[in-house]
Amino acid sequence: MTAERAYHHGDLRRAVIAAALDVIAAEGPAALSLRDLARRAGVSHAAPAHHFKDRAGLLTAVAVEGHVLLSEALGETTDLRDLGVRYVRFAMAHPAHFQVMFRPELLRTQDPELLAARERTRGRLRRAVAGHGDDPALGFMAAWSMAHGFATLLLSRNLDGLLGDRSPEEAFRALAAELPLGAGAAAAD
Fold this sequence. Notes:
The protein is mainly α. 71% of the residues lie in helices and 0% in strands.
């Protein structure tokens, strides 16, 4: 469904977010302009401001949606390798969301919806790490850093040629098995 068509069905907010995701995926968040998105949706240049106020409001809405999708993608698994694979899959399936979600300089960081959505995501990660290692906070940071770093390198094409015949999921599982956190997860199985 195109942004213009979605708007004519009465959902300008969804149409603008969809158009923003297209722009972010193609050109990055820096290329985003409410005026351009209004043109794409076929509405006045002021119309998106009724829903988002400004660019930061729109990007915050994208980040909220991304955290909701990521939380759903992570599910209830407590297997750290599986959790990491799900994180990497999310990044591959939703690269525009992923580019925005962890960029506080782009967002209204104190937005209540963003804070709640971010906490749901972090809560799922924390539950999976609980019981692995002596320091849950360090375990949380290590597991998140590994999955996020791998996903970031993958999306920025820095892993091209390094994966060989492995899928990103297979490569992440192998990487996780090589590191102490991955070994702890295996021991807990």
